[in-house]
Amino acid sequence: MSQYRYKVLVVDDSLLYRTLIRECLDSDSELEVVGLAADPYEAREKIKKFNPDVITLDVEMPKMDGIQFLKNLMRLRPMPVIMVSTLTQHGADVTLTALEVGAVDYVPKPSLNLATAMIREREELISKVKMAAQASVGHTNLWNKPPNVTIDRQHFNRSGYQVIGLGASTGGTEALRGILERLPKHMPPIVVTQHIKAAFCGPFAERLDRVCRLQVEAVTSDTVLLAQGRVYVAPGDRHLTVVNRQGHLYCQLSDSAPVERHRPSVDVMFSSIAGSVGRQSIGVILTGMGRDGATGLLKMRQAGALTAAQDQASSVIWGMPRVAIERGGAAKTLCLTEVANFLVEAIYGD
Protein backbone atom coordinates (compact mmCIF):
# COMPACT_ATOMS: atom_id res chain seq x y z
CA MET A 1 0.00 0.00 0.00
CA SER A 2 1.21 3.48 -0.79
CA GLN A 3 2.02 5.83 2.08
CA TYR A 4 -0.57 8.53 2.72
CA ARG A 5 0.72 12.02 2.01
CA TYR A 6 -0.69 14.90 4.05
CA LYS A 7 -2.35 17.43 1.79
CA VAL A 8 -1.28 21.04 2.31
CA LEU A 9 -2.77 24.28 1.02
CA VAL A 10 -0.35 27.24 0.98
CA VAL A 11 -2.03 30.64 1.40
CA ASP A 12 0.20 33.69 0.89
CA ASP A 13 -0.12 36.86 -1.16
CA SER A 14 3.55 36.66 -2.23
CA LEU A 15 4.26 34.47 -5.26
CA LEU A 16 7.84 34.09 -4.06
CA TYR A 17 6.81 32.83 -0.63
CA ARG A 18 4.19 30.52 -2.10
CA THR A 19 6.83 29.03 -4.36
CA LEU A 20 9.45 28.66 -1.62
CA ILE A 21 7.03 27.09 0.86
CA ARG A 22 5.76 24.68 -1.79
CA GLU A 23 9.30 23.63 -2.71
CA CYS A 24 10.18 23.05 0.95
CA LEU A 25 7.10 20.97 1.67
CA ASP A 26 7.14 19.00 -1.57
CA SER A 27 10.70 17.90 -0.79
CA ASP A 28 9.29 15.61 1.92
CA SER A 29 7.75 12.31 0.86
CA GLU A 30 4.98 12.54 3.47
CA LEU A 31 3.67 15.92 2.28
CA GLU A 32 1.92 17.07 -0.87
CA VAL A 33 1.09 20.69 -1.66
CA VAL A 34 -2.29 20.34 -3.36
CA GLY A 35 -2.92 24.02 -3.95
CA LEU A 36 -1.66 27.60 -3.73
CA ALA A 37 -3.83 30.61 -2.93
CA ALA A 38 -3.00 34.30 -3.10
CA ASP A 39 -5.84 35.51 -0.87
CA PRO A 40 -8.50 34.17 1.51
CA TYR A 41 -11.22 34.09 -1.14
CA GLU A 42 -9.14 31.92 -3.43
CA ALA A 43 -8.20 29.84 -0.37
CA ARG A 44 -11.86 29.28 0.44
CA GLU A 45 -12.53 27.80 -2.99
CA LYS A 46 -9.45 25.58 -2.86
CA ILE A 47 -10.37 24.28 0.58
CA LYS A 48 -13.68 23.12 -0.90
CA LYS A 49 -11.90 21.59 -3.88
CA PHE A 50 -8.93 19.87 -2.22
CA ASN A 51 -10.03 19.33 1.42
CA PRO A 52 -6.47 19.81 2.75
CA ASP A 53 -5.16 18.30 5.96
CA VAL A 54 -3.21 21.46 6.85
CA ILE A 55 -3.14 25.10 5.76
CA THR A 56 -0.15 27.40 5.98
CA LEU A 57 -1.53 30.92 6.29
CA ASP A 58 0.16 34.28 5.93
CA VAL A 59 -0.64 36.65 8.78
CA GLU A 60 -1.08 39.71 6.57
CA MET A 61 -3.31 39.10 3.55
CA PRO A 62 -5.11 41.26 0.97
CA LYS A 63 -8.93 41.52 0.73
CA MET A 64 -9.34 39.85 4.14
CA ASP A 65 -6.65 39.72 6.83
CA GLY A 66 -5.36 36.37 8.02
CA ILE A 67 -6.99 36.66 11.45
CA GLN A 68 -10.49 37.27 10.10
CA PHE A 69 -10.07 34.41 7.64
CA LEU A 70 -8.89 32.17 10.47
CA LYS A 71 -11.89 33.13 12.63
CA ASN A 72 -14.25 32.28 9.77
CA LEU A 73 -12.46 29.00 9.13
CA MET A 74 -12.55 27.89 12.77
CA ARG A 75 -16.23 28.71 13.00
CA LEU A 76 -17.33 27.07 9.76
CA ARG A 77 -14.77 24.35 9.00
CA PRO A 78 -12.13 23.88 11.71
CA MET A 79 -8.84 22.45 10.45
CA PRO A 80 -5.15 22.64 11.41
CA VAL A 81 -3.51 25.93 10.48
CA ILE A 82 0.16 26.94 10.69
CA MET A 83 0.66 30.71 10.65
CA VAL A 84 3.58 32.16 8.70
CA SER A 85 4.57 35.37 10.46
CA THR A 86 7.29 37.98 10.60
CA LEU A 87 9.58 38.23 13.62
CA THR A 88 8.46 41.75 14.50
CA GLN A 89 6.42 43.22 17.36
CA HIS A 90 3.38 43.48 15.11
CA GLY A 91 3.98 40.02 13.70
CA ALA A 92 4.25 38.61 17.21
CA ASP A 93 1.04 40.28 18.41
CA VAL A 94 -0.95 39.11 15.39
CA THR A 95 0.45 35.59 15.64
CA LEU A 96 -0.47 35.32 19.32
CA THR A 97 -3.99 36.43 18.38
CA ALA A 98 -4.02 33.70 15.71
CA LEU A 99 -3.06 31.08 18.30
CA GLU A 100 -5.85 32.37 20.53
CA VAL A 101 -8.33 32.05 17.66
CA GLY A 102 -7.29 28.47 16.93
CA ALA A 103 -4.09 28.20 14.89
CA VAL A 104 -1.96 25.21 15.91
CA ASP A 105 1.47 26.82 15.59
CA TYR A 106 3.55 29.30 13.62
CA VAL A 107 6.77 29.49 11.64
CA PRO A 108 8.90 32.61 11.11
CA LYS A 109 8.80 34.46 7.81
CA PRO A 110 12.29 35.72 6.94
CA SER A 111 12.62 39.20 5.45
CA LEU A 112 16.15 38.88 4.01
CA ASN A 113 17.89 36.23 1.90
CA LEU A 114 14.57 34.49 1.48
CA ALA A 115 15.63 31.42 -0.45
CA THR A 116 18.56 30.70 1.88
CA ALA A 117 16.49 31.35 5.00
CA MET A 118 13.63 29.11 3.88
CA ILE A 119 16.05 26.27 3.18
CA ARG A 120 17.52 26.75 6.65
CA GLU A 121 14.03 26.68 8.22
CA ARG A 122 12.84 23.80 6.03
CA GLU A 123 13.12 21.16 8.74
CA GLU A 124 11.09 23.21 11.22
CA LEU A 125 8.43 23.98 8.63
CA ILE A 126 8.08 20.33 7.58
CA SER A 127 8.04 19.11 11.18
CA LYS A 128 5.35 21.57 12.23
CA VAL A 129 3.14 20.86 9.22
CA LYS A 130 3.30 17.11 9.90
CA MET A 131 2.56 17.72 13.57
CA ALA A 132 -0.36 20.00 12.71
CA ALA A 133 -1.86 17.34 10.47
CA GLN A 134 -2.25 15.15 13.56
CA ALA A 135 -3.34 17.90 15.96
CA SER A 136 -6.70 18.20 17.67
CA VAL A 137 -8.19 21.56 16.71
CA GLY A 138 -10.95 23.55 18.36
CA HIS A 139 -9.56 23.51 21.92
CA THR A 140 -10.37 27.20 22.36
CA ASN A 141 -13.92 25.93 22.96
CA LEU A 142 -12.73 24.35 26.22
CA TRP A 143 -12.75 27.75 27.86
CA ASN A 144 -16.25 28.53 26.60
CA LYS A 145 -17.66 25.87 28.88
CA PRO A 146 -18.65 27.02 32.38
CA PRO A 147 -15.34 26.74 34.25
CA ASN A 148 -14.89 25.57 37.79
CA VAL A 149 -14.40 29.07 39.16
CA THR A 150 -11.19 29.33 41.09
CA ILE A 151 -11.86 30.94 44.46
CA ASP A 152 -9.54 33.82 45.31
CA ARG A 153 -8.53 32.40 48.66
CA GLN A 154 -6.07 34.00 51.02
CA HIS A 155 -5.70 31.00 53.33
CA PHE A 156 -2.42 29.83 54.70
CA ASN A 157 -0.19 27.89 52.30
CA ARG A 158 -0.53 24.74 54.41
CA SER A 159 1.76 22.54 52.36
CA GLY A 160 4.55 25.10 52.19
CA TYR A 161 4.92 24.99 48.41
CA GLN A 162 7.57 27.49 47.32
CA VAL A 163 7.38 27.35 43.53
CA ILE A 164 5.20 26.03 40.69
CA GLY A 165 6.70 25.01 37.35
CA LEU A 166 4.63 24.90 34.15
CA GLY A 167 6.04 23.56 30.88
CA ALA A 168 4.45 23.56 27.42
CA SER A 169 5.05 23.55 23.69
CA THR A 170 2.55 23.32 20.81
CA GLY A 171 -0.82 24.61 21.98
CA GLY A 172 0.76 25.89 25.16
CA THR A 173 0.29 29.62 24.74
CA GLU A 174 -3.47 29.29 25.06
CA ALA A 175 -3.29 26.49 27.63
CA LEU A 176 -1.15 28.70 29.84
CA ARG A 177 -3.41 31.69 29.37
CA GLY A 178 -6.46 29.68 30.37
CA ILE A 179 -4.76 28.42 33.52
CA LEU A 180 -3.08 31.61 34.66
CA GLU A 181 -6.06 33.91 34.20
CA ARG A 182 -8.04 31.65 36.56
CA LEU A 183 -5.51 31.76 39.40
CA PRO A 184 -5.76 34.07 42.42
CA LYS A 185 -3.15 36.75 42.99
CA HIS A 186 -1.77 35.14 46.15
CA MET A 187 -0.17 32.10 44.49
CA PRO A 188 3.46 31.15 45.14
CA PRO A 189 5.88 32.18 42.36
CA ILE A 190 5.25 30.38 39.06
CA VAL A 191 8.00 29.71 36.51
CA VAL A 192 7.06 28.96 32.92
CA THR A 193 8.94 27.43 30.03
CA GLN A 194 7.04 27.64 26.74
CA HIS A 195 8.78 26.74 23.49
CA ILE A 196 8.64 30.09 21.72
CA LYS A 197 10.81 32.28 19.50
CA ALA A 198 12.82 34.96 21.29
CA ALA A 199 11.02 37.78 19.46
CA PHE A 200 7.66 36.46 20.67
CA CYS A 201 8.52 36.03 24.36
CA GLY A 202 8.08 39.64 25.47
CA PRO A 203 4.72 40.12 23.71
CA PHE A 204 3.56 36.74 25.05
CA ALA A 205 4.37 37.73 28.65
CA GLU A 206 2.74 41.14 28.19
CA ARG A 207 -0.39 39.50 26.81
CA LEU A 208 -0.61 37.20 29.84
CA ASP A 209 -0.02 40.10 32.21
CA ARG A 210 -3.01 41.96 30.77
CA VAL A 211 -5.46 39.11 31.47
CA CYS A 212 -4.12 37.77 34.78
CA ARG A 213 -4.47 38.85 38.39
CA LEU A 214 -0.90 37.66 38.79
CA GLN A 215 1.95 39.83 37.52
CA VAL A 216 3.64 38.22 34.53
CA GLU A 217 7.10 39.09 33.23
CA ALA A 218 9.58 37.73 30.74
CA VAL A 219 12.84 37.01 32.55
CA THR A 220 15.74 38.96 31.06
CA SER A 221 18.37 38.46 33.77
CA ASP A 222 18.89 36.55 37.02
CA THR A 223 15.89 37.42 39.20
CA VAL A 224 14.86 36.72 42.78
CA LEU A 225 11.56 34.86 43.06
CA LEU A 226 9.21 37.02 45.09
CA ALA A 227 7.07 35.27 47.70
CA GLN A 228 3.78 35.37 45.82
CA GLY A 229 1.78 36.81 42.95
CA ARG A 230 4.38 36.59 40.19
CA VAL A 231 4.83 34.56 37.01
CA TYR A 232 8.28 34.33 35.42
CA VAL A 233 8.45 33.33 31.72
CA ALA A 234 11.64 31.89 30.23
CA PRO A 235 13.08 33.95 27.37
CA GLY A 236 12.83 32.44 23.93
CA ASP A 237 16.52 31.66 23.53
CA ARG A 238 17.86 30.81 27.02
CA HIS A 239 17.18 28.13 29.60
CA LEU A 240 15.45 29.17 32.83
CA THR A 241 16.56 27.41 36.00
CA VAL A 242 15.56 27.80 39.64
CA VAL A 243 18.46 27.96 42.09
CA ASN A 244 18.70 28.28 45.87
CA ARG A 245 21.18 30.87 47.08
CA GLN A 246 21.52 30.97 50.84
CA GLY A 247 17.87 30.13 51.37
CA HIS A 248 16.49 32.43 48.65
CA LEU A 249 15.16 31.18 45.32
CA TYR A 250 16.26 32.81 42.07
CA CYS A 251 15.53 32.44 38.37
CA GLN A 252 18.88 31.96 36.68
CA LEU A 253 19.34 32.05 32.90
CA SER A 254 21.69 29.77 31.00
CA ASP A 255 23.09 29.67 27.47
CA SER A 256 24.01 25.98 27.70
CA ALA A 257 23.27 23.66 24.79
CA PRO A 258 19.68 22.88 23.76
CA VAL A 259 18.07 19.87 25.43
CA GLU A 260 15.70 17.73 23.34
CA ARG A 261 16.48 20.30 20.62
CA HIS A 262 14.99 23.10 22.72
CA ARG A 263 16.32 26.18 24.45
CA PRO A 264 14.56 27.03 26.68
CA SER A 265 13.95 23.45 27.75
CA VAL A 266 11.24 22.25 30.12
CA ASP A 267 13.55 19.43 31.23
CA VAL A 268 16.19 21.93 32.31
CA MET A 269 13.69 23.97 34.32
CA PHE A 270 12.00 20.98 35.99
CA SER A 271 15.35 19.35 36.81
CA SER A 272 16.57 22.52 38.48
CA ILE A 273 13.39 22.73 40.56
CA ALA A 274 13.84 19.10 41.64
CA GLY A 275 17.35 19.87 42.84
CA SER A 276 16.75 23.23 44.49
CA VAL A 277 13.19 22.95 45.86
CA GLY A 278 12.23 19.27 45.81
CA ARG A 279 9.08 18.34 47.74
CA GLN A 280 8.10 21.98 48.24
CA SER A 281 7.33 22.37 44.52
CA ILE A 282 4.62 21.52 41.99
CA GLY A 283 5.25 20.64 38.34
CA VAL A 284 2.70 20.43 35.53
CA ILE A 285 3.48 19.47 31.93
CA LEU A 286 1.08 20.65 29.27
CA THR A 287 0.34 20.07 25.59
CA GLY A 288 3.28 19.82 23.20
CA MET A 289 5.12 17.81 20.60
CA GLY A 290 8.06 15.62 21.56
CA ARG A 291 9.29 14.55 24.98
CA ASP A 292 10.87 17.64 26.54
CA GLY A 293 9.97 17.83 30.23
CA ALA A 294 9.33 14.12 30.82
CA THR A 295 12.73 13.48 32.39
CA GLY A 296 12.62 16.62 34.49
CA LEU A 297 9.09 15.94 35.76
CA LEU A 298 10.16 12.45 36.83
CA LYS A 299 13.06 14.00 38.76
CA MET A 300 10.61 16.33 40.48
CA ARG A 301 8.35 13.44 41.48
CA GLN A 302 11.30 11.42 42.74
CA ALA A 303 12.32 14.44 44.84
CA GLY A 304 8.87 14.46 46.46
CA ALA A 305 7.20 17.19 44.39
CA LEU A 306 3.53 17.12 43.41
CA THR A 307 3.32 16.48 39.65
CA ALA A 308 0.65 16.33 36.95
CA ALA A 309 0.24 16.09 33.17
CA GLN A 310 -2.46 17.28 30.81
CA ASP A 311 -4.74 14.57 29.42
CA GLN A 312 -5.03 13.55 25.78
CA ALA A 313 -8.57 14.80 25.23
CA SER A 314 -7.72 18.44 26.04
CA SER A 315 -4.24 18.53 24.43
CA VAL A 316 -3.60 20.01 21.00
CA ILE A 317 -0.64 17.62 20.76
CA TRP A 318 -0.41 14.84 23.33
CA GLY A 319 3.31 14.26 23.07
CA MET A 320 5.15 15.74 26.03
CA PRO A 321 2.41 14.85 28.57
CA ARG A 322 2.10 11.31 27.19
CA VAL A 323 5.82 10.61 27.54
CA ALA A 324 5.84 12.09 31.06
CA ILE A 325 2.97 9.79 32.05
CA GLU A 326 4.60 6.74 30.46
CA ARG A 327 7.86 7.39 32.33
CA GLY A 328 6.06 7.73 35.64
CA GLY A 329 6.69 11.43 36.16
CA ALA A 330 3.06 12.48 36.50
CA ALA A 331 1.21 11.59 39.70
CA LYS A 332 -2.05 12.93 38.22
CA THR A 333 -3.55 13.31 34.75
CA LEU A 334 -5.81 16.34 34.37
CA CYS A 335 -8.09 17.95 31.82
CA LEU A 336 -6.76 21.40 31.00
CA THR A 337 -9.76 23.06 32.66
CA GLU A 338 -8.96 21.27 35.92
CA VAL A 339 -5.38 22.50 36.28
CA ALA A 340 -6.08 25.88 37.90
CA ASN A 341 -8.27 24.36 40.63
CA PHE A 342 -5.75 21.55 41.11
CA LEU A 343 -3.08 24.15 41.87
CA VAL A 344 -5.28 26.20 44.19
CA GLU A 345 -6.43 23.13 46.13
CA ALA A 346 -2.83 21.95 46.49
CA ILE A 347 -1.76 25.33 47.87
CA TYR A 348 -4.77 26.39 49.95
CA GLY A 349 -6.91 23.28 50.37
CA ASP A 350 -7.78 22.07 53.84
From TrEMBL:
| Entry comment on modification after translation | Phosphorylated by CheA. Phosphorylation of the N-terminal regulatory domain activates the methylesterase activity.
Response regulatory domain mapped to chain residues: 7-124
Q: GO CC annotation: what is one?
A: cytoplasm
Stated EC number for the protein is 3.1.1.61, 3.5.1.44
GO terms classed as biological process: chemotaxis
Q: Which UniProt keywords apply?
A: Chemotaxis, Cytoplasm, Hydrolase, Phosphoprotein
Q: What is its main location?
A: cytoplasm
Q: Which residues cross the membrane?
A: none
Q: What is this protein called?
A: Protein-glutamate methylesterase/protein-glutamine glutaminase
Taxonomic placement: Bacteria, Pseudomonadati, Pseudomonadota, Gammaproteobacteria, Vibrionales
Record gene name: cheB
